[in-house]
Design goal:
single chain; about 100 residues; mainly alpha; about 70% helix
């Protein structure tokens, strides 16, 4: 609701896509990037600064590629950083909703 229904993937569909072998690699990057885009659209329409969608994508890519070079501990860190960026956008949207 906070994104004005700009993110058209339901929770059930998102979960289903994440368990399809090999597609889940694509989905791990695509879903957060698309969610960041939906948050940015809602923030822009509210006159607020956007979140860093490129940083979300970069963090997700690093979380997938890091284990291939032996950096296993970086995977959850990168994932958490991208989710935190998105969460900041949602926090601003909620704050705006309650300010009205």
């Amino acid at each position: 609701m906070l994104t004005g229904y700009g993110y058209r993937v339901s929770p059930a569909k998102a979960t289903g896509f994440s368990v399809i072998p090999l597609f889940d690699i694509y989905w791990a990057v695509s879903a957060p990037t698309r969610l960041a885009g939906a948050v940015n659209s809602a923030l822009e329409s509210a006159g607020q600064p956007k979140i860093a969608r490129g940083a979300v994508t970069a963090c997700q890519l690093l979380s997938i590629l890091a284990p291939f070079v032996g950096l296993y501990a970086i995977t959850p860190l990168m994932y958490a950083m991208s989710m935190r960026i998105i969460q900041r956008g949602f926090n601003r949207l909620v704050a705006l909703q309650y300010a009205r």
